[in-house]
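Input for the complex:
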Amino acid sequence: MMATPKTKPRFRRVAPDQRRELLIAAGMACLAKGGILDFTIDRICAEAQVSRGLITHHFGAKDNLLAAIYETMIGQLISSVEGNVSGIGGIIDGMFPDGPEQRETLRIWLALWGEIANTPALLKAHRKQYARYRAAVENALGELARQRKRQPDINQAAIMFISLVDGLWLERSIDPRQISAEDARAACWRLLDLLFGPPLS
Amino acid sequence: MMATPKTKPRFRRVAPDQRRELLIAAGMACLAKGGILDFTIDRICAEAQVSRGLITHHFGAKDNLLAAIYETMIGQLISSVEGNVSGIGGIIDGMFPDGPEQRETLRIWLALWGEIANTPALLKAHRKQYARYRAAVENALGELARQRKRQPDINQAAIMFISLVDGLWLERSIDPRQISAEDARAACWRLLDLLFGPPLS
DNA sequence: GCGCTTGTTATACAATCGTTCAACAAGAAG
DNA sequence: CTTCTTGTTGAACGATTGTATAACAAGCGC
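Predicted:
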């Protein structure tokens, strides 16, 4: 009875949705590692351990993969704002966690920001999703205003809070040494306390 | 008397310093137009109307040109902060001018930010110059505190002001529609009034 | 077990990338 | 005018870019 020469399959077939997620993850890893210049068909497919043809097959073009990555990132951000159960405090903690695990996320955002204005598909996605993000923040700030019995200009407060967060993210993504996560959270709370008054009890 | 067939010179010799400035300007134009992906030897030299060999000749490598552009940009920023005569008000007005002329500057910054962490020469320059920028801002804020007879935490105030400005720049460089220059200036003033108290007279 | 769909691979392709280098010539020095 | 320095050009290099495409085979339905 001779052993069956069962050759190891040369690849594994995966459902398109799962394969897209795999490629999105690989693309994000490349963006985090070397910015937009490392967002390359070769590098992404090497990261995903997959042949070069797959990106075109599943996304049509490289830019569409980048747009899909943006959708994933902004979706996670919006979820973390909309789905918070502990109010603005939980949101801030989620935005500036301790430890180095956020580094990758920030590096991806930095790379995406730089390409939004240069990639039409990305700009379109940004304008659509950014409105949702801003609305979610305004909603959370409105609840905080109710808690502290103040009625500030929610519109301006949202601009200031979002911009402050973006700026802190920017500083920390470029060089985490300059501003610690704790400093960032403290800056957020300082702004909110100034805008909405101190906690009531 | 036959006319001398004076052939038009095929190029013009320029002093190295002037040529470097020309290439820096061309490189900035490329960054503004298409981000870091358009920062290419071919495109830069085409923009400068110069042959491909010049960048290597004057800068050694492309990255060094990028670092030189960073130095130019941060130098202008620091000068506008240090050299202001009308206090923080003049600084804010300079940071968020009306009209579209700032667009190019912000696009260049966005492209540079994305590469700082990936280009050692850039990170080194950033760390050195960022400290100067922060010191200049702290100095201007200290003067404002004296004017308004308050003594807040200048360190934290500087972090908040710089991050807010960075965030507003980021939003406006990605998509100027979202936040107008006037909104940005108002947000800066709101933060300062909250931190340092309202103007005394 | 067999055929078929289709996810996957691997090659090919022209275009462009950053850099090197030899030849050229502009313009100051004599 | 002649000589020399050196800023400048332009071709060439191998490597890498994004995409198209044909051959392949994994694995489900029968």
